[in-house]
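In this section we walk through a basic example: taking a raw amino acid sequence and producing a predicted 3D structure, encoded as discrete structure tokens. The instruction is simple. Fold the sequence below.
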Amino acid sequence: MRIKNYLKNKSLLLLVLALMGLISCKKTKTENNNVQLTNVDNEMIIDLNNLTYTIANEHDQFYSFIGVRALAMVHLSIHDIFNAVHPTYKQYHFKETINNINPIVASLASTKVILSQAYPKKVDTITKVCNRWLDKIIDNKEKKESIVFGEEVALSLIAVRKNDGHEKRGGYTPMTKPGNYQYTPGYDWVLKPDFSVARPFTLDSLTQFRSPSPPSLDSKEYELSYKEVKDFGSKNSKVRTANQTNFAHWWAEFGEHSWNRIGRLVAQEKKLSVIETNRMFALINMNLYDLYLVSLESKYFYDTWRPYTAIRSGDDDTNINTKGDKNWEPEMVTPPWPEYPSAHAATGAAGAEILSCVFGTPNISFTMKSVTALPSAKTRSYMNLDKAANDCADSRIMNGYHFRFATKEGKKQGKAIAKHTVENFLLPINE
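The resulting token sequence is shown next.
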């Protein structure tokens, strides 16, 4: 059955009244029966976010665009479904209103379709988690029609994202001049999208937020950044404090880990509504997808070397004040892509910006564990999102990955893309 067959011209008032029990986050009653589904508010959305995150992480630890794309698509599809039934925020792709559809059922059906298409080997796991929620709702005509509707919305979004280049890789050959990126230990490859076909969720162009040129090798800014990471980012550094070492490792996990987990924790604690919880995850993940594309486009445009290469080649660059050390090693193994700007600093600044917009303040507290943390310091607490973002950026200096000028620019770039996302997509309908 096609989506258009479901469209009804009912008043907004009737929709609000019919769905008051669902959107109040207390109880949901399915039509034509007396069975009530309780506690499905953000608990279900958080569960689906965790399902998608877990499958993606098991697949490749987010070393591709498959996982963050799946996260974005799952939550965008759910966003469009809930706002089709109860118009609150502007939709992303499916931009119609509808009634006589249970948005919970439709959302679970859409999640099944999107995740099964992205991870066909995980169909059993996907079905088990989604059915755990679906089985709480008695079978009837509305449930069947809601499932079909959810599948149609998912397939429509999949069609729109077809050929978006998320699995295509561009070619790369390292250059040899001082300042150019060189492969670092553990990798003889780089993560480089094919920028000729890569398509973001929110941007008109990947150059829309391209970083300005990094400082030249003979500049004072480069010299100071060089010396800082050489001292603080070296393996078993004598000047790095225990706390700096701890947060260097704690923040090393990719942004898909940290900011989805922070979102789950804070949404649960703040009892964010079902629509707002899902919107938050949609904003976080489509922003992450676009941010990575933009950051990598800047990285390969400037093609700058990592501290590992720079410090070992310090005597051969054009700066007489950068003393080299051919035995220097970073605190952690360097990721396989060019240095400037810092994508990780960008994810921290962007995550903080989006959550600050969702909650209306950066003064949000959370306590959590990280998958990359040292065994003796697995848990950290924050009371302010900007403080978390700054530690995230500084961690890349402390683990020897980045120069200070790259983390500064990463924060600027990430915040700018996040502002663009929240100011132009999934906006309240009355704006």
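Looking at the output, two observations stand out. The longest strand covers residues 366-369. DSSP finds 14 helices and four strands in the chain. In the next section we compare this with other chains.
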